[in-house]
Structure formats: structure tokens, C-alpha cells
Amino acid sequence: MQELNLTVLNKVGLHARPAKELVKFSRSIKSKVTVEYNGKSADIKSMMAVMALGAKQNAEVNVKIEGPDEAEVAQSLTDMFANGFGFTDEL
Amino acid sequence: MSEKIQGNIALEGISVGKIIKVEQSLKQYLASYTAGNSDEELAKLEEGIDTLSAEIDASVEAMREAGHDEEADIMEAHSFLLMDPLFTDAANDKTKEMGNAPAAVLAAANETAEVLANMDDEYMHERSQDIRDVGKRLARVIMGVKGIEIGKEPVILCGHEVEPSVIANVPDDKLAGVIMGQGSTTCHAVIIAKSRAITTIVGLEEKIKDIPDGVTALLDGNAGLVIVDPTPIELKEYEAKLEAQREEMQRFEQIRDLPAETTDGAKVQLTANIGLPKDAETAAKYGNQGVGLFRSEFLFMGRDKIPSEELQYENYKKAIIACKGELCVIRTMDIGGDKPLPYLNIPPEDNPFLGYRAIRICLERPEIFMPQLRAILRAGVYGKAAIMMPMIISVEEVKKARSMFERAMQELEAEGKEYAKDVQLGIMVETPAAAVMTPILAKYVDFFSIGTNDLVQYTLAVDRINPQVSGLYNHFHPAVLQLIQRTIKAGCDNGKWVGMCGEMASDPYAAVLLMAMGISELSMSAPSIPRVKEKIRSVSLKEAKEHLAKVMELETGAEVRDYLQANL
Predict the structure, then answer these.
(1) Count of CB atoms within 10 A of residue B412's CB?
(2) What are the C-alpha distances in Å from B90 to residues B108, B137, B558?
(3) Choosing a second label site near B271 at 20 to 30 A (CA), which of A45, B283, B369, B383?
(4) Which of residues 119-148 of B touch A (CB under 8 A)?
(5) Per-residue confidence of chain B (568 residues) as pLDDT tens digits?
(6) How high is the ipTM of this complex?
(7) How far does B282 lie from chain A, in Å, by closest CA?
């Protein structure tokens, strides 16, 4: 298992569009990814659960990755968080 | 023999098509559905999700290609909801428990919808409608119910509620209209119908059940009328109306970007009344110059707690940005005991329209008013914003509101939050008391906006919803005209601008009269703007003032109306 602490940089936080990107990403990998924040945890396959975390801009989230491709997944997620899920206007 | 059924206008237009009844079929199918054993039902669930998911993805793509982006966005959200483990896990559990996949899907969708409806997040809140729609659609797929069969003739979709996905799946050239029993004009089905400019009539209530499947119907969306099985003569009449409508549209198109200006160069600002932030964008196609009334009620309805400052801020910001530098006038909460909301906690009243409502609640309950004031002040940095308070009757109220407004600014300043320092604070003049008091109130406000719907009702003591007295309702009643003239004069004398945001503003004859009185802004539903503008562009301010002088001498509302219709 890999564990990461990542910061949400998007202005809107982990809202609809970033959550959708996470769902799409989850469909392309084999590992199970859970995001934890503020005592709640969400499988990134669930857009509703991710949004319900209520992680706003600058929130520190804890990410757990478990599965055969966890090293690559960890790298990809680090990148996705760092570039604000590709929504540069919202950074 | 044709039959006429009256509903409410959701989207204007005239069209003819074949009635297709949606909805009730789902209940029928469910009643006659035979479930298999638990494993079979679980397999059907899984298969159903796969089939529907592929179907949605294909239709999203088709909608994007056809340029229906708004619709595609809603359908894409459906696809994410359908695949969301929060929903699929619930559907699995319920299927095991109930042993009936379609019934389980509906139950799971309702359960998920309730969770979403209780979240303090506008986006999630809206999705609760979507998940119910997804549930119904999935139940149909599992039961092998075919979608609507479309033949050569254009169709009119008819049901108590018509699901957005059902509308979305009928191609443009085959969809003549949508008619619904329920009365909301802001539900997703109506939004989708609007984005495609489909004639829509809502609020037919129980009468919707009497409309037979497969019959031809004529929709007069301008009057909110459904004519079932129209006669050839009626069809012909409507064809002529349709032609006239097309011609009018062309004329309006030509003046859209021209100013609302009299032949001698006097200008008035024509603005839009909106109920949702995105209406500010759609208003642009009618050539509005900003928003004169943004009803903030939608933020307060259908929730069990006060909407947060953040949620309000996001919505006001959206509307202010859509005004593109023109003024966006936001009306503070205008709700009372007629709409029971748990957090307002108002005991039943005999007469809620004269009761504890609107500004009366806000001034006593800072936990409701302050977040709204702060949200508007903060959103104001994205353009030009104004705050408008409804139901004012006295100077004390305005003074108290102003001190709360100032406190909101001080708080934001102390917290180091960005906010607009130039937000105007004004009142709606909609009680006779306020209208009489305008020479004094003018000292304490930045503007007046005359709310004629209530001003006429309160001045004439006429409930216009009551058919026995609604004939007495007339915005040209001399008492009303005198109050309006007094208000406009008081504003002008004190250097404060005066606008109007009631229905009277959309009456082209009234518009001319109001210009002569010195009004500077008229706010109305966006589709009315071109008609008012056309009239204003046809007269001079000089003539208008001559007419005004004569009109103010007349003794009855009927005489005023007759005079204007004969002379303008």
C-alpha cells in the first residue's frame, strides 16, 4: 500500500469537475484509491462521495492506494493534484 | 369537437403534435413485472447498468455534435450518477433485500436523492432530481420497456412529470412540445425544453390525465392553452398566428442591439427579471442591459437549513458576471408563511401576505440576513451589484437595514475579505405606505424600484388570483398611477434613480407613460423586452409627456387604458 499527503490546489476544491476527473482516472487503473479528509473517506470511483468530503482549496487530503499498479497511480495522482486536474483557470 | 385545457406558460410558442403519454406506463409495467430469483435479479441489475451507461454515452456524444451542450452536461452527470458506487451499492443491497431489481432501483434512487437533497451544496442539491430520473430510466431498461416510439409526426410529451432524459432523447425535428401536470417552471425538464426552445406548458394538474394518448393537440404556449383534437378551423387560425409570430420575431431581431430610445433621444434602461443565475445569460438574446430583479428565493426554497454564505456568493457571482458590467439588482429573501420552510419556523398565519415575511423576518433574524448581505457584497467585485429590499413600509426599517449593511462591510473589512464598496442599497416600493413615504425614504436609499404586482394588489385591495375580483386589478387605476408618479418624482428630486420591476413594466403603453414620468429603468421578463423597446422607439418624449398630462386627468383605469390604446 502507498500513502500520500496531497494538497488541493483548485480554487473550487474537490468539486464536480475534479471529482469527475478522479472517477475517469479510477476507470483506467487497477488499484483501489481512497481519499480521506476531515474524518471522512471516499473511494475515488464515487463522485458523490468525493464531493461529500467537502475538501476546499488548500485542504490537505490523505490518499491511500492499494493494488498492482500503485507506484504509477501514486505518481499520476501527485501530478493531477499538482496541476489542479488540468483546470488551469481554477488554480 | 375540440377540448381546451388551461395551464401555465413555461415557454412561449405555438405548435401542433401527437400526444405521447409518458410516466404512468412505468407504474403499469412494475405492477405486471415478474421477478426471478435473487441471482437473476442481481444479474439483470448489472446488465441494465451496462446497457443504460452505453446508451447515455452515445446520446451525450450525439448531443455534443448537435451543439446541445447544456443538455449534454445534464446527461453526462446522469452517466456519472448511474456508475457511482454510492448508488450501485445501494441498488445491489436493495435488490437482495426486495428480490425485485426494478423496484429496488427506484428505492435506491429515492434514498440517494434524499442524501443529496440534504447537502449544503448547490451542485449536489440539483443532482437529487437527476438521480431519481436515472432510477426511473434504469428500471425501464431492466424491465425491457422500450423508449418512446417516434413515428413521422412530431410529438408532444405529456405526463405529470416528464423526465429530462425522455425529452433529451427525442430529436429536435420530432419534438413539438412538452406538457406537464406539475407546476414548476424551474425543474430540469423545463430547463432542457427551454434550451431547445420547445413550447412548454406546465401546471395542468389532474387535467393531464384526461388527455388521451395518440390524439393530436395544439399548444398555444403564449396563452398556456392545450387544445386537444383541434378542429380544422382552429388549426388554420393558429397557422396564421404562427406566421404573425415569425414576422414579429424578425422585427424584434432587427432592434435587439439598438437602444431603447424615443424618437427625440430620451433613453431608458431595459433590464431582465430573473429567477436563476443562468437566466441572466439567456436574457442576452433579447437585448437586456443588466438585471433589474434577481429573485433570490430559489436559494432558500426546498432546503431544511439557511443557505450558506458561500453557496449564495457563488450564485450571485454567476449572475453578476453574466451582466457583463451592467447593474445586477439582487432582491433579498422575499418569503413568508405561505411557503413553510423548516428553518423559518413561522407559525400558521391567517393572512401570510400581511404577515411575518420578507424584510420583516430579515431584520429580526441576522442569521438569515447577514450571510445574504455579505454574499452580495463579496460577489459585487465581479461587476456592479445592488441590493433591493422587499415589503418596506417605514423609515425605521430602512435605517435598521442600512446599519446591518454597514456592519456586514465592517465585518468583511476586519476579516480581510475582498468585497465591493460601491454596492447600492435600495428598496422595492410595493406597499402604499412606502409609495406615500418616498419623499422621506429617498434620503436613506440609493434607488427605488416599483414592484407593481404587490403595489396594485395592496393599493386596490384586490387579490388577482381570486377570479371573482381579479377583474378589478388594473395597473392604470388612477390611485396606482398617482403613487407611481409620486415615487418617481421623489426619486428624481433627491437625485436617486427609480426603476420598475413589476409586470406593468412589460406593458408597452405603461412604458411610454412611465418614461414621461421620468423613470430610468424598466425590468421585465426578458422575452417582453423587444415589444416594449419597439413601442418606445416609435414615440417622442414630448408626445409622451402630453399624453401623460391628459391621462392624469382621467377618472378611471378603464379610461386610461382606452386612451392609451387609441392614442399610442
Answers:
(1) 18
(2) 5, 16, 63
(3) B369
(4) 119, 121, 123-124, 127
(5) 688 888 888 777 888 999 998 865 677 788 888 889 999 999 999 999 999 999 898 888 888 887 777 778 888 889 999 999 999 999 999 999 999 999 999 999 999 998 888 877 777 877 888 898 899 999 989 998 876 777 788 999 998 888 877 887 788 788 999 999 887 776 777 877 877 778 899 988 888 888 998 899 999 988 889 999 999 999 898 888 888 888 888 899 899 999 999 999 999 999 999 988 888 888 888 999 999 999 998 888 777 789 999 999 999 999 999 999 999 999 999 988 777 788 888 888 888 889 999 999 999 999 999 999 999 999 999 999 999 999 999 999 999 999 999 999 999 999 999 999 999 999 999 999 999 999 999 999 999 999 999 999 999 999 877 778 888 999 999 999 999 999 999 999 999 999 999 889 999 999 999 999 999 999 998 888 999 999 999 999 999 999 999 999 999 999 999 999 999 8
(6) 0.87
(7) 23
B-chain CB neighbours of A54 within 8 Å are 121
Q: Which residues, in sequence order, are bridge partners of residue B201?
A: B9, B179
Is B84 in Cβ contact with A47 (below 8 Å)? yes
Residue bearing cell 461587476: B383
Classify domain A2-84 at the CATH superfamily level: HPr-like (3.30.1340.10)
**Are B368 and B333 within 8 A, CB to CB?**
yes
Q: Which domains does chain B have, with CATH numbers?
A: 23-142 (1.10.274.10), 155-249 (3.50.30.10), 264-540 (3.20.20.60)
Active-site annotation of A, residues: 15
Nearest to B86 among A15, A20, A46 (CB): A46
Which residue of chain B has the CA closest to A20? B80
Task: Tell me which residue has cell 447515455.
Answer: B56
Query: H or E element: which one contains B292?
Result: strand B291-295
**pTM exceeds 0.80 for this model:** no
- Which residue in the set B85, B121, B124 is minimally distant from A45, CB to CB? B85
* Spatial CB neighbours of B466, under 8 Å, sequence gap ≥ 6: none
